[in-house]
Structure of Class I SAM-dependent methyltransferase:
Amino acid sequence: MPDSHSTDPKQGEREYYAQLGDAAIAHAIRKPFSDENCAFNLANLAALFHLLPPPPLRILHLGCGVGWLSHMLAERGYHVTGIDIAPEAIAAATRRRDEAGLTDLVYQLGDYEDAINHEPYDVVLFYDALHHAEEPSRALTTAAAALRPGGKLIAFEPGEGHHDSAKSQQAIANFGVHEADMPPARIIALGHAAGFSRHQIMPHPADLMAELYHPDYAVATDQIALARRQFDRSWQLVRELWREPRRHAFTVLWK
Ligand SMILES: C[S@@+](CC[C@H](N)C(=O)[O-])C[C@H]1O[C@@H](n2cnc3c(N)ncnc32)[C@H](O)[C@@H]1O
């Protein structure tokens, strides 16, 4: 439990991994394969790798946690800097990097709401991390300042309803972390105020894939049932494309 007398609003974030312990850190490092949301994360990664120009590219990964995604990006050949506020996460990420001998991967303990003095980056990435900010506007200001002109911010964040979900309420109560809703509309409004000039909302890849490759198909018993399911699923796909992105999606902003 977080210290209820602390005046540090980020104490829960700083101590989260220490509270979780070694087994949970080991689980997080082995993501996406260790995780029940494996398909969700893999779908996001496929979209991310589609969006990114080929290496070399300088990527700043804010709120990188134990670095499972930073590590993958570095293995692909990108120059990656991962920043996180939790010392245990950065320590675990650094150990794994050193074991793998990756040289183009830098980890730093830091607060993404503070200015970062660095070379300009081509891409800033938030993956499931901006919604933990105390002041998301400050985090977006950091991101804008870190990017070269024309560089882009890519944000995969939980959308509407995240704060009120049972899992988030449990995390807030047990660890004192922030769990805000971070729908595209909020990221875009704050992003424009922070200096971004253009934006694009894209459907959540995992939602599209969940319709296209639904487990229903595996249990259909005849050809007509399969055709019906495919028809139904196609309608759901159109719905996801045009309706759902407003509630939750991923967002790209250009500086
Ligand atoms: C839900 S975790 C996701 C971590 C990682 N992106 C992943 O996909 O596993 C949110 C992360 O944001 C980090 N974080 C929260 N507030 C932060 C801040 N102000 N500055 C830097 N990192 C922060 C947390 O320490 C945590 O690692």
User: Anything to note?
Assistant: Residues 10, 13, 16, 28, 63-65, 68-69, 83-86, 89, 111-113, 127-129, 132-133 surround S-adenosylmethionine (CB under 6 Å).
